[in-house]
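SEQUENCE, STRUCTURE TOKENS:
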Amino acid sequence: MAAILKSSERVKFASYEFAPRTGELSRSGIRVRLETQPARVLELLIDAQGDLVSREEMIATLWPGEVEGNFDRRLDKAIAKLRASLNDDAMNPRHIETLKGRGYRFLGKVTIECSGISESPARIPASNELPSSAPVPEVNAPIPHLGPEATSPPKKTAFFKQVLKYPGLAAAAA
């Protein structure tokens, strides 16, 4: 599992964005409720890159080591919850295709984005390793090429003005 997905990546498809590491799903920037098992199903399907993921493989991955329980029913529930979160329909699928009696396949184009953190970050020297001649920048000092206004607080943005105008947006933005 997770052959193409890394913990620092986000996956985009249609108007959705999915973070495999946290299991968070959002649509057009708005977070969508997604429970743990449906998130793991989505990760498995995306990782298969359009190939079939068998029911047996999903059950073995989702409930490793468990021997008792109705795993078919559990998987059906996880798939149904995932489809509900994606506004997908089993009869007319846009994201998850059922291959009756065999398993599932993820439909559509997937884009994987890295978070910008390199896998081997540059080494930062410890404070005792800095040469004594190195200048130490002053906190809240103006940036020379920007002038004194560089230390002033940021101006209110259009979004901030909308939040003030419509208090309900403040709760949605938080």
In short: Residues 129 and 146 are 30 Å apart (CA to CA). The first strand starts at residue 9 and ends at 13. The radius of gyration is 23 Å.
